[in-house]
What we know:
The structure holds two protein chains of two kinds. By secondary structure, chain A is mostly helical. Chain A contains eleven helices and no strands. Chain A has helices at 3-34, 44-54, 65-83, 100-120, 124-155, 160-169, 177-193, 212-215, 221-246, 260-284, 293-313. The longest helix of chain A has 32 residues, at 3-34. The termini of chain A are far apart. Chain B contains 18 helices and 15 strands. Chain B has helices at residues 2-12, 37-47, 60-63, 105-115, 209-213, 218-226, 233-248, 254-282, 286-307, 327-352, 355-361, 369-374, 379-384, 391-394, 415-438, 489-501, 509-516, 520-524, and strands at 16-22, 26-31, 50-59, 65-73, 80-88, 93-95, 118-120, 168-173, 185-191, 195-201, 316-317, 320-321, 457-463, 468-476, 480-487. Chain B is α+β, with helices and mostly antiparallel strands.
Amino acid sequence: MTTASLLPALMQLALLLAIAPLTGGVMRIAKARFQTRRGPGILQPYRDLHKLLKKGMVIPDTASWLFGAAPYVVFLSSLLAGLMIPMVAADAPLSFFGGVLAVVYLLGLGRFFLALGGLDSGSSFGGLGSSREMTIAALAEPAMMLAVFTVAIGAGSTNLSTVAHAALGQSWRFFAPSQMLAFAALLIVLIAETGRIPVDNPATHLELTMIHEAMILEYSGPYLALIEWGASIKQLVLMTLLVNTFFPFGLSPAWAAGGLPASLVWYVLKLLLLSGVIVLIETTNAKMRLFRVPELLAVAFVLGALALVSTFLF
Amino acid sequence: MNSFFQELRGRFGGLIRSFHSDQAGAISILLSGSDVRPIAGFLRAEYGARLVTVFAEDRVEPEGLFYNYYVFEQRPNPQFLILQVPIPADDRRFPSLAEDLPNVNWQEREIQDWFGLEAAGHPNPRRVALHDNWPDVHPLCKDFPIDQVLPPFEGEQHVYRPTLGEGVFQIPVGPVHAGIIEPGHFNFALAGEPILYLQLRMFYTHKGTEKLFERLPIRRAVFLAESISGDSSFSHAVAFCQAIEGAAGIEIPARAAVMRTVMLELERIYNHTADIGAIATDVGFVVANMHAARLREMIVALNEELTGNRLLRGMASVGGVRRDWDSAQIRAIRRALEIFEKEFRDLIALIASSDSTRDRLERTGILSVEKARALGVVGVAGRASGVDLDVRRDHPYAAYRGVELRVPVYDAGDVWHRMQVRSDEVHESVRIVGAALDTLPSGPWCAPPQPIPGGRCAMSAVEGWRGEIIHWVRTGPGESLERCKIKDPSLNNWPALVEAVEGNIIADFPVINKSFNLSYSGTDR
């Protein structure tokens, strides 16, 4: 790897690490305003991470090495996935490493280890959370694959940089049925995968209703910080995938100094917009009954399947 | 009423020693033997009477025996019927009714734990009120000094029903919970997500409250009554004051009766509003909760303006209320409630228009009418499951005799309808407050102090926001108490939660629990 390709990787890395908690902070504030609260301030996720990193850890007596390994795997897999998607430039730093399938399965790897960590803690809540998470993942993944294939077929490649270049090259065609259906499917998957209402409630204190939070209930201190940070990066990765694939406006084709500032502005705008949509869904809906979640994901799957079929029809 | 006595005499002549009708709305029948079963069965079968509560009293020193008291009510008769059953000190056993009447299950076991009387034939005579690691003491007996220091607890721990079977597992929750709630242990047996059964363990906050009453002068005991269950301070305090007033024959001024009514309803309004918000929060519909919190704040701020305390403490007093209101305060009530009701209507409309919320609440945590009746469920939970009881209507007190009361009753018994009962009652309460204020007479707000004679018994009932609150007192010499029995509605309703969650999924437990919102402190005392 040359210096020329190292620099974009470092820049994207810095961007991922910095923006991911901020996205969460923005969403929290927006949510608070919708609920007529003032909210904790946009920088609260950073303060939380800072606090957690300074703290000591309590590790369950029953835990094995898996418990300690899971946070690193979660964090690194999200980060690696983040380097494989176009953020501000169509050329993703690690796009040679793999395409969208690699991204999906890197995130899957993180989730797998998180579920193991939850089980390994020996607490019954961890087991409950892990079992729920895997149930939902098993349903969300096929829906995601179908939607992703739709896009890949359109571009003729599963490599996300190629997809982005293709999207930049042609006129914007979001209103093609296949694109809209795939977008809808991915939006549902995004909500399910990032544990937001109506699938999961990130703000609850009720152990018995938790999914993601139940798995990480036994984690504390720096491990918890890694998991939280990793989860926010994963959320950013999925959001970026969504905005840059379907709305490629302003995306700089390459890591050239000229295009990047404008591209960054566009990127942030698109993220804000998508955050707004997610927050709106979260505020206006109650959490679903757990057994209804498969129905929602079935909808995502059907949307994905229709999207795939319609690529060949229209 | 006379024909009733004659019939009882005719049927149970030998068993009945005397009748006694007291001024406070109860008829006492003293029995000569300890077997209450035939007469209890007769009252239930022939008169459709409901066993409200059962409790015991230690009278070994003066009379050489214990008494069990069985309180019945028979609608629409406003008087309670109390069977006073002697239990000889040398044969400390009484026949259990729990087999037929599951609602006395815990209450009979409390008597076992606290008095050392044996509930013969109880289907599950294990300890309940004192945990298994308590030494063999019976703290409500008079020979148990209140300041006695017990040795550190050790020994047998509670044995839960085992969770067996392929793929079946156990989730213990509590006694320490996330969030600001009190301690209680919930032991779930699960087959995946669905709940097979729930085992409850309460009484972690047992404070010996009933014993504490026995060493307090009556006027200070009002403050203890306020802290039986923090969110029902005023209801418990009024129930206690009414019992004392009944025992001493104190007539409270008409103005005090209206003021008590207003505050009892304000307590209901702020708690129901908070509960509706909490139910919404438990299904993730936080916006509704934020509005509910804002509305509750309006009422507790009004409470502070009226009494100097947000939770209406320090206002109830034997003989009436402690402070009067001026016309500005009365205007403040009307103004606050006018704004409140409009916004409360919007809140309910917001929740009702949220399909996703309704989907979570409807047909969740169903408590059937049959089970609710069998378990003697009272209050909000009872009215949502077809149990048409309301002390305000059935045994009017304070100024309720003068107001017409609509009692919302539904048969569906799910979370949604427990919320519906609450929202109906809030509107009803606002109306009652308005109607009561219209009749607010001028004059004194507290009866002049008068001595409270010893050796008098009286019972009082108040419809707290959760349901029926019962206080029973026997006064002692020098304005003291020989016995104060407290029954919070939560005690009846906890076992109903076990029935309501069965077959639901574990993720729905919190919202089902919240729809009952029972008091730990009031149960444990």
